[in-house]
Task: inverse folding
């Protein structure tokens, strides 16, 4: 999704901003642009110089003229919402006098109404974007300072924004504001950065300040200040980003997806590190802010997330029910927030998000907080909006996930849920022996993941075998069902092969009609109490001449092929069973020549509705 990067300091700004944009490429975009303030003669205002291009950052780079010197600038990668991808619709947007330039992430809900009003006042629009409205509002604001002009403009605007603004008459500063779309300040030595994602900053500084909703900031080369959109000063203490710039590199892999799948043994090791308490056969999750008495009072747990995080939450809900015996379920946050949910004081809400910025999840959290609920976050990005909005929670420590398609973060999130379930279980009725059993199982995971990854060549061969399918069915029961759903999502996202996921038990209630030789099925078949039931489902498929690829703990006779995965404790099996299917999706997409790290139409973090 859209990306912002800005710089003010002494260095030549254009190469810095272009490099920053490249680091944001993974988020998905369709056009890019850059604006810088040219050198101001003494006592005279500077001029703004802008270049925009439809397509990739390298196309923008090719258009940037040789003489494009300046030490202050802002840049953007756009993901079209209002108006098709084009040079005109790319950001930044400037006013008629070329004095104000704005880059914007988010959506201005009342843009068309404001556009009509401004057009009636004689403003000529050059693009179809909602952002241009904001540019003209700032340019026409009567206030004396840039901060007040921006504030005045924002008062007319409804919707979400992360913005950065340059003004030719105030060329010693960049003014930024946040409402619903991330804005992070990077604090350097006599230089300041701003970005929508720390990925664009960490090569230069690891000292960051994340703005809250309703917060603004003024960046000058040697200082910054933060304040609310109402004008009152806020305190902002920089924190240190734990991830190194190298964590965002490809590290010798051809794609980020492959790199991230391959990192999972280490990533799981990281989420477990320092948390296991062998003495009481439990785990410590320092940030939960939920003491044992409060945890005992929880009557129900509702998990909210989107896409892959929602699927991780479904496995999380099962783990909580199994280990802690607390009724739990997961629901897409995007649906939850629109159905006027009944918020029960004894329910603990858990928001799950890799990015910590997904708008639908954030909005659900804000709605819950407004209604007085207690919300925990299970989040990957430290200091992200959802992490800060929640009352407590746990980080999943997967490390930066760059590929649009989530893999390692899914696995780590499920492990984090296993830790939460164990923690809650040991406060309630889970025995020491069962606690120890689960801890032993958790400790086996990294090695078992390495074992699965070592089988990549065989999975690649199987992917080639099934890559001709136009459509695939994924089935599983209870613990296997969310695994099937996630594996089906992975395949469709990255290969564009149509895939359906159903509980195996539901086959005969309708989807069996789809089964024929051209519709292969991937069956999740753990060695647990439902093994025979799963075998019966495979039998039904075989009877209709369906091809079957099983993911199981032992070779399945009914299946045409089986990927055998190592057995763990029944409750933890779902963590491992999804991993070969990430590789399956990856190799299918590779064989089909897909753009693996940036599947069509998708963006990494969906910070708009
Ligand atoms: C799928 C995928 C998406 C995200 C979803 C939520 O591979 O990555 O389905 O899981 O957009 O994103 P986060 O977890 O950042 O809230």
Result:
């Amino acid at each position: 999704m859209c990306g912002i990067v800005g710089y003010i300091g002494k260095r030549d700004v254009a190469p810095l901003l272009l490099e920053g944009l490249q680091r944001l490429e993974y988020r998905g975009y369709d056009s890019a642009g850059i604006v810088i303030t040219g050198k101001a003669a003494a006592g005279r205002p500077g001029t703004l110089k802008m270049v925009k291009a439809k397509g990739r950052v390298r196309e923008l780079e090719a258009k940037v003229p040789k003489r494009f010197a300046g030490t202050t600038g802002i840049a953007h990668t756009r993901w079209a919402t209002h108006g098709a991808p084009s040079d005109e619709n790319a950001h930044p947007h400037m006013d008629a006098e070329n004095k104000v330039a704005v880059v914007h992430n988010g959506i201005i809900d009342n843009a068309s109404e404001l556009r009509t009003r401004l057009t009636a006042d004689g403003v000529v629009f050059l693009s179809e974007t909602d952002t241009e409205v904001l540019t003209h509002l700032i340019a026409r604001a009567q206030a004396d300072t840039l901060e007040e002009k921006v504030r005045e403009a924002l008062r007319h605007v409804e919707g979400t924004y992360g913005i950065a603004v340059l003004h030719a008459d105030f060329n010693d500063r960049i003014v930024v504001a946040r409402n619903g779309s991330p804005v992070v300040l990077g604090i350097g030595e006599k230089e300041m950065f701003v970005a929508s994602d720390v990925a664009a900053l960490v090569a230069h500084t690891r000292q960051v300040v994340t703005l809250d909703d309703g917060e603004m900031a003024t960046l000058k080369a040697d200082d910054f200040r933060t304040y609310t959109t109402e004008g009152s000063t806020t305190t902002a203490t920089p924190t240190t980003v734990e991830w190194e710039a190298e964590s965002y590199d490809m590290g010798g892999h051809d794609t980020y997806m492959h790199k991230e799948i391959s990192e999972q043994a280490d990533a799981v090791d990281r989420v477990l590190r320092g948390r296991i308490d062998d003495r009481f056969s439990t785990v410590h999750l320092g940030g939960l802010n939920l003491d044992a008495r409060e945890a005992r009072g929880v009557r129900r747990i509702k998990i909210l997330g989107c896409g892959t995080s929602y699927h991780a939450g479904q496995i999380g809900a099962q783990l909580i029910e199994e280990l802690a015996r607390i009724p739990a379920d997961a629901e897409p946050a995007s649906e939850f927030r629109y159905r006027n949910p009944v918020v029960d004081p004894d329910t603990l809400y858990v928001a799950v998000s890799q990015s910590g910025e997904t708008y639908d999840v954030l909005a659900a959290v804000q709605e819950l907080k407004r209604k007085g609920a207690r919300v925990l976050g299970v989040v990957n990005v430290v200091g992200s909006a959802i992490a800060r909005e929640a009352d407590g929670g746990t980080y999943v420590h997967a490390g930066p996930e760059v590929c649009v398609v989530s893999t390692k973060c899914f696995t780590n999130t499920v492990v984090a849920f296993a830790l939460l379930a164990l923690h809650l279980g040991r406060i309630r009725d889970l025995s020491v022996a069962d606690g120890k059993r689960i801890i032993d199982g958790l400790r086996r995971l990294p090695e078992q993941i390495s074992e699965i990854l070592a089988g990549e060549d065989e999975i690649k061969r199987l992917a080639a075998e099934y890559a001709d399918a136009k459509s695939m069915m994924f089935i599983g029961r209870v613990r296997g069902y969310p695994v099937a759903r996630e594996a089906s999502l992975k395949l469709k996202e990255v290969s564009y092969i149509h895939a359906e996921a159903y509980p195996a038990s539901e086959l005969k209630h309708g989807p069996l009609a789809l089964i024929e030789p051209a519709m292969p099925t991937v069956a999740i078949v753990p060695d647990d109490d439902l093994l025979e039931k799963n075998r019966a489902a495979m039998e039904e498929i075989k009877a209709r001449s369906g091809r079957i690829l099983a993911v199981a703990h032992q070779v399945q006779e009914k299946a045409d092929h089986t990927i055998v995965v190592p057995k763990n404790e029944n409750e933890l099996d779902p963590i491992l069973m999804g991993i070969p299917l990430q590789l399956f999706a990856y190799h299918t997409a590779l064989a089909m020549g897909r753009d693996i790290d940036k599947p069509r139409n998708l963006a990494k973090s969906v910070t708009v509705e």
